Amino acid sequence: MKQTFLELRNNLVEFLRTFGAFQLFFLRLLRYSPEILTTRLGLVVKQVHNAGAQSLVIIMVCGLFVGAVLALQAYSNMAKFNAEDWTGVAAAFALVKELGPVMTALLFAGRAGTALTSEIGLMKATDQLSAMEMMAVNPVRRVLVPRFLGGVIAMPFLAAIFSAVGLYGAHLIGVEVFQVDVGSFWQQIQLTVEMSDVNEGIIKSIVFGVAASLIAVWEGYNTVPTAEGVGHATTRTVVITAITVLVFDFMITAAMI
Amino acid sequence: MRQTRSVEIGTGLFVLLGMSSLFFLTTQTTGGDDFKAESVYTVEARFENIGSLRTRAPVTMSGVTIGRVTKVAFDAMTLEAVVHFVIDAQYDQIPDDTDASILTSGILGSQYIGLQAGGSDMYLEDGSEILFTQSAIVLENLIGKFLVNAGSSDEDSD
Questions:
Q1: Where are the domains of chain B?
Q2: How far is B58 from chain A (nearest CA, A)?
Q3: pTM listed for this prediction
C-alpha cells in the first residue's frame, strides 16, 4: 500500500518536473530566437526549406483530396434540400477553420516533426551535441533554435496552402463534376465566410506550428541516446503532437465562438 | 554553394506560394464588409417578430446595401423587438415614411432589412424611427397556415 503510494508520488513529481522543464526549454528557445533571426538568418532559411518547402508535395496532394471529398459529401447531402449552391460554403468553412490547420499540423508532425526529432536525437546519440559544447558552441542556439523557428514560420504558410488547394479541389468536384454554377459557388462562399473565420484558421495554424515544432525539438533534445531511444522519441513526437493539436483545437474554437 | 542556392530558391518559392495562398484566402473567400461608410446615421425600427435577424445583417434599398444592423434588443414595455441600424450618411434623402420589412435572401438564406421608399418630404435623420414595419415571415407559421387552409378547403369540397 505504502509502496504504491510512494510510486504514485514519484510519478507525479517526475511528471511535474518534465512539464516544468518543458516550459523552461520553451522560454530558452524564445530567448535566443530574436538573436538568431537577426544574425543567423541563413540557418533559419535552411530549416524553413526542410520543414516547409519539402512538405509541399504531401500538403498539396492531401489538401486537394480533402477539399474534393468535402465537396463530394456536401454536394450529396445538400442536393437533398436543393441547396447545391452551398457545397462550396460547407467545404470552405471546414477547410479554413478546421481541417486546414489541423490536418496540416498532423501531416507536419508526421513529415517534418519526426525528421526534426530523429535528426536531433541522432546528433545526441553520436555525441555531436556534446562535441559542440566542448567547442564552446551552444547547441540550443546553433541547432535547436533555427529548427524551431523554421517550423514556426513554415506552418501558417503550409496551412494556407492546404486550404487554398483544398478549395480548388472542392471547385473541381462541385463546379466541374457536379455542374454547380461557378458564380453562385464562389459568391456563396464570399457572402458567408468572414474575415474572422480566416483569422481563426491563421491563429490556429500559428499555435499549432509553435506546439508541433516545440514538441519535435524537445523530444529530439531529450532522446535517450541509443538507437531504440531515437525510435521511441520519434513515435512520441507524433503521438504527443496529435493529442496537443486536437486539444488545443478544441480550446481555441471554444474560445473564439 | 549550389546546395545553398537551390535551398534558397526552394524556400523563396515556398514562402511566395504560402503568401499568395494567404492572400487568396483573405480576399477571395471573404466578402468582407461590402458596406463601408465614412460617416453614418442611426435609425431605429420596431418589429413584432424579427425572425433570425442578427447584428451585422445588411440594410438594403432597391437591392443595394446602404446600411447595417448594429443592435437588436427587446423592449419589455411594448413587447416588441427594437432594431437599430446605421445608414451611410451620403444617403440622407430617404423619406421618413419609408417602410422597413425583414426579408430573406433565397429560401435558406440569411435575413436582412429591406427599405421601401415612401413619399414624404421629410427625410430620415440620426435617431429617427421608422414607423411602418413588416415582420419576418416565419416559415413554420406559413406552413401552419397552409395546412389549416388545405384542411378547410377539403371540408368545403365535401
A1: 1-31, 40-138
A2: 11
A3: 0.74
